[in-house]
């Protein structure tokens, strides 16, 4: 039986279409689509950070906001569903100012040095995060602080989320100085995919951070090392140990890396693996977001169990 | 199923079904990404039932857990069947139109009242009834099983007993309804597809019965093919025992450690005249070999092999790494062997070999490499290049009239496991996998897993305290065939009288020294899942030695007896050894 026949047999109705206007141009998309998808259909590039194609939008970073005629506030393009006859502006002064502010606040407080899009976004929106002053010193107590336990800022330095990297296991490293609190790792670890619930957001306001239960090191937490959090992390806060070590040594070089799609050598589920190879060594393993078996997810063996084809000491 | 040799459903249907039964499967740990699809269904509101002697991490997600006694699967399935019939919940129209043998099946169930089912399986009658009614009443329902069903002397009958349930209720051949073995290795399904089983040519064409298929292969290859079925693995070991099999060529398997009753298996392998082993790593079996042929790892060092997954999806493998030293692709080695034996097969590429398969196996005919690559794999059967492949099998059973053969009910008799419990051996040991490890650990023990605890004897807290054993304390585990020592670990998911061990660390703890090589006469599968054991405190002397051994190891904080790479050497060294081997 054909897939389409099977779907028809299962009683799935044909999708309805919705027409709206983006920057004065008319566009027709499926009912239930987001404004972001409508923009994509028109070739309008929308900045995103917390959005992930495999996850339900958390709409927390606010860098994708657009102006919706008749709405009091700007709306997040990543999560707002289209409605008939909406009129959207994606490049109005209000949108540009808001995006600039979001980028400046994030970039002044978080280390976006290896976030692929960050530089381009800052250029596009003329963002100058350095205007808040030099970054403050790392705060080793950040994760233990309670609401209200803050010293008054002196206005000379930019408050940051800097905190020492957590290197507490052989497989991956957590550097929350790079964390923009996009919630993607929490969602991937939680109900949307892995259902392990090893991490969540702890603390409030500027102290909010990703944490295991009681801030335990990973080996004492519920973590099962699927690395599905690494796969969705947009800023490099979560990273393979192999990548971390190569970066420390200054030898991480994506221009010398090849990506090859193959199939996991372990169980019979048939997960697609993308092997990232530098100098004939696997340095990272991902899975394609659009593969319907994995949707970008793997287990510990698929993601980390490649040492047996390495010629290096482990 | 019904001659098709693969699971009937797709993962996508698992997400969209209404009721799932995982039978003898701890998919949460052994098929983690499959379990993501199960969880999608659970969050959508589908019911999940888990049938497993252990209350596993899969069972923790279930609406109902049926903790049956090891090896009573047929008794449970027959009880469920009788309850479905008695309650008037079977799909009479489907049975009448699409099946054979219902009356004989029904009369074979006479014994299996709910009370008798409860007595034999240990599952409360009410829970059996609940599952029976929920399964029969669901619009869509899928059953999946794994080795918990098949590693028994009644392997085939266990599966047939489960399939009976699908036939009773019409839960097969429709979107969202089916019966599926979850494959334990990335190409178990593909091995069957390609005819690496003694009774089938590629594409599940019977060696003995399908004369047309055999003729087609003979014409293509220009040779006469044996008209008899060959030996499966267990029969090969029996033939070794009789002295009829004297030379063995092993590819990518580690029978020195993976066979039940390992002492006996080892003795038979050592007694061979000539043993050739082709593998990507130096396994224990390689160490016994007269000749080791180092091969490239097909999943990342060779370009264009295929594997088939548990939803019948054929997927392409691609080369990402250069193999070390002189390691060669499997197909190159085989062709070279043939050439040296006087048969020049040329130097075919993997794509040429694949196209030859397509010309001889109708179910693969439409799967060109280009299509496999573009579509991310194709589910068989796929008979032409405009065929999108098959989301599910046996839609034919719902055609009017039914197309092809009707699906037969099977009469299955429950028999208790061979290795009986008695006063001397009162505890049932069952074996399985853990999340981070794989089979005999040859591949998986080479990466550092923070989850790895090494081999343990898992007991329920009640048994441990009755035996006076503390967690971490070394226990001696004794079966009728051998004994091993392992530290005790408490698992509240076990019940009194049930113990669990893995097979992942055979160099430290050879669990297969305990298992029985009694096999299912129909499939040859050994009864890995049901061993009778007794447990004692280990001798103090042995314990002292173990502690010393532990101290001699690097201070990695792991207790004695914990995981090291499969061969006890650091991982890099093992791979290095492979290099030397290759250059030698």
Explain what this protein looks like in three dimensions.
The complex is a heterodimer of chains A (314) and B (584). Chain A has eight helices and twelve strands. Chain A is α+β, with helices and mostly antiparallel strands and 314 residues long. Chain A folds into two domains: 17-137, Ubiquitin-like (UB roll) (Roll), CATH 3.10.20.740; 172-309, N-terminal domain of TfIIb. In chain A, strands 2-1-5-3-4 form a five-stranded mixed β-sheet, sandwiched between helices. The termini of chain A are far apart. In chain A, 43% of the residues are buried. The model of chain A has no long low-confidence stretch (mean pLDDT 92). In chain B, helix 7 packs across helix 8. Chain B has 584 residues and is an alpha/beta fold. Chain B contains 22 helices and 21 strands. In chain B, helix 16 links the parallel strand 10 (274-279) and strand 11. Chain B has a six-stranded mixed β-sheet with strand order 17-19-18-21-16-20. In chain B, strands 3-2-1-5-6 form a five-stranded parallel β-sheet. A three-stranded parallel β-sheet of chain B has the order 9-10-11. The two termini of chain B are 47 Å apart. Chain B folds into three domains: 11-181, Dimethylsulfoxide Reductase, domain 2 (3-Layer(aba) Sandwich), CATH 3.40.228; 188-377, Rossmann fold; 427-583, Barwin-like endoglucanases, CATH 2.40.40.
